[in-house]
Each structure stands twice: as structure tokens, then as C-alpha cells.
Write a structure and sequence with these properties.
heterodimer; A: 454 residues; seven-stranded mixed β-sheet; six-stranded mixed β-sheet; 27 strands; 30% helix; B: alpha+beta; four-stranded mixed β-sheet; 23% strand; globular
């Protein structure tokens, strides 16, 4: 009877969560998984990678040949051959195992000479012994140009530097041919794991997009606007306005078809015009209907050392009657996380001081961000027909990493038919733009005297 | 003769007894009262706060993961009052698991086919995390997965990290 009960229990027991892994040798094995999370240590051991644990630092060291990867459960950073890198996601501890998402496992395996293909349904691990040969091309159209890089097995890190940009890979790469410069590129250097693109004077990086499925990276270039002289910059204020969404990302769509991406651009242009009248230098993260990555938007503001960053959006919610404007700034929780990551970097690599300062600057800007949010929200509340939603905090992706006061304004609800009609009206857009400009100017007027005022 | 009268009297007495005897009582036991429990669910309202609704459900399963799944199934089934659904697409809970330190992983499928505004994303994050914390004392934060994958963002908010309950958004 006992045996029968045991057989019954075995027959109806939940299947052990596992994913099938095909190893480079062709052997198949099963590795524990939960959703997309894989047992990272088990996979490394199956691949013959030596894994050690340092109780002092709480981190694991995976080594293969001359390559070493240090990673810590609970962290999103790794040290690869002595260089600090950001992982696509955190390494976690789950049910006594060390697990990570597929993309994170890919990033950990790549420096060790393995390429992981597949996902939660099945994984194949290949030896990455052959050097990838990348195809680079350049397309120029008016004041814009695009560098297209194809044949990528991983997303490279884009580093902007004076006179151009570098693409940093986890392993050595080759370039099939160097594209013609066409007055945009001054040269391309291949340096083992890096591709360095030198830009002709007057050109700068405007954004980038990685298409994983296609293994393709697009780097958009734009002619630089005439830069204000140092004296102008010191005396004035620079505001970066971010019209939400754009390109294929339409954002919210109202019941009668008003698109958020068009509305945000129209309002941002008018806010810019209002601020420029007051002597403020303004840059938009996009000038037309184009897609710009969330990280690229705030990166522009950081690079320009803007005095504030205002992302303009229109809201949508399943509650159809929801209405009114809202202004958000970064949540304390998210900021705390950034500070913790900064501390993590400090422990991981002594050369990360700049990154730490960058993070701390963001945390210090929280108070100023809340003041900016309040200046904007108070004025939006005064507009007729807008109910007070107050200032809120939330972990916005587009505000992450901003080193200046940064807020996100939702000017109203496109999901509400009445508000959609109101927001679509040019007169209302003008009123909103004037109100936002007034709030931004009031924020600068209320700042401590040491900072420039328009 | 005497025996005949005795038999007649006995038969009569028996018939009378049968006539007067109450019908036999029902022998089937009364149905056992099903054990139930009350859940508290948080749904977004037009005021963009979270509003509580209660549900009476059969006794919850023993493990926290299974309990969380039942709670979320009730939440995703939608509100009965004048509130809004938590998800803007027909999402289902595929699985729930936790790391033993208070972070509950909630795998929803399918992934959202369309974007929504900041408020829609905030309502999803806040309602799931707050509802789970209202019903399970072990819940400290919730990490949403979509079709088993961690997602950096759905367009506005950061979904790459666990979210703590948003008590400040809960209507009084």
C-alpha cells in the first residue's frame, strides 16, 4: 500500500523545472530553470568552467583559459578580465541555487569563450572559437548619417568620446571592410575587442539601437548644432526637453486616434520656443518622428551637462475616466538602488570613482527634482479642467542615471475621450507649453544664487 | 381461540405502531461546511488610488507560492466594483515562485501586446505588489516576469527590479 502511494505521488508530482541544454560536444543535459532564470553555476560546471567562491567578497570567479569573470549574487555588475562591466540583469539566489536570466548568462559566458543560443525552451551552447567578422556600412542623408554594423553576436558597449565613439565587445572582432568616410567618418580603427570610429568635425552621435534578432547595431549621427561659447554656457541655462516616444514607438493612442508621440513633440517644440524667448538654451532629444532609446535621451542631457531634464508624455490607463496631469520624479527606492550599485562598483573596481560620483550626483538631485516637479504640477493644476494628481515618485527608466534635476510630466490622459479632444487642440497645447515653460523658469529663479538663472 | 386473539391484537398493535411511528430520520450527514478564506484585492480607481475589494474563496493551498497564485488569479479576474482592471490585456498567472527572502516572482503570460501610459504601468506594478503583501505576510517585493522573461521596461517604468508594495497609493 505504501509502495502504491509512493508510485501515485511520483506519477502526479510536479515536473522538476529544467531546461534542456545542448553542450558544444553535442551532449544533452538538463539544467534547473525557473521561467527564464537558469542555474548559472550548474551550467558553468557542465561546460567545464572552473568556478570558485570567495567567502570574503561573496563573489564567484569563473575561469576558462586566461579569462576570468567575477560575479556576485544580488548584483548586476561583473568584472571581466579586470574590467567592470554592467550585466543585462542581476545574478540572483533562488532555492539554494545561483541563477540569472538568459541574457545575463550569455554575458557571463561570452568572455569565457562560449556562445549561448536559445531561451527558456531549450539552449544550445557553442564554442566561440571563430572570430566574428562584422560588416560595417555608412548611409548619409542631409544632416544625418547612420553607421550600420551587421553580424554581431552580442550587443557592444557604445562609448562616446571626443572626436567619435568606440564599440567595446567582450571578445576580439574583425571588420570585413572599412566603409568610405563620405565626409562623416574620419577613420575606423580595429583594436582587438574594440572598434573605434573617428568622426569628421561637426558630427556627433545622436543615438543607437541594437536589434538582437538581426544581430545589428545602428548608430545615428547628426551634425552638431553650433555650440554656444563657454561664456554663453556659463551665463545661461540649458534645458533638455524630451518629447516621449517617437518613430515606431507611438506611445499611447487615444480613442479617436491621437498619438502620444505627435502630441509630445508638438508640446515640446512650443515649450522650447517659450524658454528660448526667456534666453534659455534648449535641446530636444528628438527633433522629428524618430525612435530614440530611453538611455540615449538622458545620456544626451548628461553629456550636455544640462541644468534640467523634462520628459513630456501623455498618459493612458485602464480606468477610462482617469483624467488630469501628473508630474513624477525618480522614486527613492530606485535612487537607493543606484546608490547601492555605486557602492557595489566601489567594492568591485577601484577605478570606478567617476561612476560613483555620477550616481551620487543623481541621488543628490532628487531634492531638486522634487522642487521642479512641484513647480510644474502646481501650475498644471491651475489650468482649467485639470484635477490635481499631485507629485508622485516612480522608477522611470528614462529618468535613471540623470545627473541633473529630472522629471516626467504626463500632461493628461489620452485614454479619456474628453481629455483626448482637449489635448488635441492647438490652443490647449499652447496653454500647456506656456505653463510648463513658466514652471521651469520659476524653478531656476528659486534655485540657490550660485547656479545660473535665465 | 385464545391464540387467535393474541395474534390479532399483536397485528393491530403492530399496525398502530407503524402508523404512529415518525418517518425514519435522514441518515445522510449534513454537508460539511466548506472552509473559506477572505482575500483583499487592490484595484485602481479613476482617482488613480488603489481600492480594496474582498473575495471569499475556498481555503488557500498550503504553500506561499500556491497561495500567491490564487490571490493573483482573483486579482486578474477583475474588479466587481466601479474600479479598473489591473492588466490592460488578458493576462494570466503562469507561475509564482520566491527566493526565500521575500521577493516573489510572478510570471504573467502572454506579454502585453500593446503599450499603455505611465499610470497603467504603475497601477499594474503597485496593484500586484500591494495585493500580494496585503494577503501574504512573506511578501516584501514582487518581480514581474512576462512569458518567463525579465523585462527592462514596458515603455515607461523600470520593470527590471523588484517592486515593494505601494502602501501610499492605497485609498483610505
Amino acid at each position: 500500500m505504501k509502495r502504491l502511494a509512493l508510485l501515485f505521488a511520483l506519477a502526479f508530482a510536479a515536473p522538476s523545472p529544467a531546461v534542456q541544454v545542448t553542450l558544444p560536444s553535442g551532449t544533452k543535459a538538463e539544467v534547473f530553470s525557473r521561467g527564464e532564470l537558469l542555474d548559472t553555476l550548474a551550467l558553468l560546471q557542465l561546460l567545464g568552467v572552473k568556478v570558485g567562491f570567495s567567502a570574503a567578497s561573496g563573489s564567484y570567479v569563473a575561469s576558462a583559459g586566461s579569462h576570468e569573470v567575477h560575479f556576485t549574487p544580488g548584483g548586476s555588475l561583473a568584472v571581466v578580465d579586470g574590467e567592470l562591466v554592467s550585466l543585462p540583469g542581476p545574478v540572483r539566489q533562488l532555492e539554494g541555487r545561483v541563477v540569472a536570466g538568459v541574457e545575463t548568462v550569455k554575458a557571463l559566458l561570452a568572455p569565457l569563450g562560449f556562445r549561448l543560443v536559445g531561451g527558456a525552451s531549450g539552449i544550445t551552447v557553442q564554442l566561440a572559437s571563430e572570430l566574428p567578422v562584422l560588416e560595417a556600412s555608412l548611409q548619409v542623408a542631409g544632416d544625418g548619417a547612420t553607421v550600420l554594423l551587421a553580424g554581431l553576436g552580442e550587443k557592444p558597449r557604445l562609448v562616446q568620446e571626443k572626436g567619435g565613439f568606440r564599440l567595446v565587445f567582450s571578445r576580439t572582432v574583425q571588420l570585413a571592410s572599412v566603409p568610405a568616410g563620405e565626409g562623416v567618418l574620419a577613420g575606423v580603427n580595429v583594436q582587438e575587442k574594440e572598434l573605434q570610429f573617428l568622426l569628421a568635425p561637426g558630427w556627433q552621435v545622436a543615438g543607437s539601437e541594437y536589434q538582437e534578432g538581426l544581430g545589428r547595431l545602428t548608430v545615428r549621427l547628426a551634425r552638431q548644432a553650433p555650440a554656444p561659447g563657454p561664456s554663453t554656457r556659463k551665463a545661461g541655462v540649458l534645458v533638455v526637453l524630451d518629447p516621449g516616444h517617437g518613430g515606431e514607438d507611438e506611445g499611447a493612442k487615444g480613442p479617436s486616434g491621437v498619438l502620444e508621440k505627435h502630441l509630445t513633440l508638438a508640446i515640446a517644440r512650443q515649450v522650447a520656443a517659450e524658454l528660448q524667448k526667456a534666453g534659455v538654451v534648449v535641446r530636444l532629444t528628438r527633433e522629428g518622428d524618430e525612435g530614440v532609446g530611453l538611455a540615449d535621451r538622458v545620456a544626451l542631457a548628461n553629456r550636455l551637462q544640462a541644468d534640467c531634464f523634462v520628459s513630456i508624455h501623455a498618459n493612458a490607463a485602464p480606468a477610462r475616466g482617469a483624467r488630469g496631469a501628473e508630474t513624477y520624479f525618480m522614486s527613492a527606492e530606485a535612487s537607493d538602488r543606484e546608490a547601492a550599485q555605486a557602492a557595489e562598483r566601489e567594492n568591485a573596481a577601484p577605478g570606478a570613482v567617476q561612476l560613483i560620483l555620477w550616481e551620487l550626483a543623481h541621488v543628490a538631485n532628487l531634492e531638486a527634482s522634487s522642487r521642479l516637479a512641484l513647480e510644474l504640477q502646481t501650475r498644471l493644476n491651475r489650468l482649467s479642467g485639470i484635477r490635481d494628481r499631485g507629485v508622485k515618485q516612480a522608477p522611470f527608466a528614462v529618468l535613471t542615471g540623470a545627473t541633473m534635476p529630472a522629471v516626467l510630466v504626463e500632461v493628461g490622459f489620452l485614454s479619456n475621450p474628453e481629455e483626448e479632444q482637449r489635448l488635441a487642440s492647438p490652443a490647449e497645447q499652447g496653454r500647456l507649453a506656456a505653463t510648463l515653460a513658466e514652471g521651469i523658469l520659476a524653478f531656476f529663479r528659486s534655485r540657490p544664487a550660485a547656479t545660473p538663472t535665465p | 381461540m385464545r391464540r387467535f386473539f393474541l395474534l390479532l391484537a399483536g397485528t393491530w398493535a403492530l399496525a398502530l405502531a407503524c402508523k404512529k411511528a415518525p418517518p425514519p430520520a435522514q441518515q445522510t450527514p449534513p454537508p460539511a461546511r466548506e472552509q473559506t478564506t477572505f482575500l483583499v484585492l487592490a484595484f485602481p480607481g479613476e482617482d488613480l488610488l488603489l481600492h480594496r475589494e474582498t473575495r471569499e474563496v475556498p481555503e488557500l493551498p498550503p504553500t506561499p507560492e500556491a497561495q500567491a497564485k490564487v490571490v493573483l488569479q482573483e486579482l486578474l479576474a477583475g474588479p466587481r466594483g466601479p474600479f479598473a482592471p489591473v492588466a490592460w490585456w488578458p493576462a494570466e498567472v503562469q507561475e509564482v515562485f520566491h527566493d526565500g527572502q521575500g521577493v516573489f516572482f510572478v510570471n504573467l503570460a502572454p506579454a502585453p501586446p500593446s503599450t499603455v501610459g505611465s499610470e497603467g504601468e504603475l497601477a499594474l506594478q503597485a496593484a500586484v505588489a500591494t495585493t500580494l503583501a496585503l494577503n501574504l505576510k512573506q511578501v516584501k517585493a514582487v518581480q514581474l516576469l512576462f512569458e518567463g522573461k525579465e523585462v527592462a521596461t514596458l515603455g515607461h517604468l523600470d520593470f527590471a527590479h523588484p517592486t515593494a508594495p505601494r502602501w501610499e497609493l492605497l485609498a483610505p
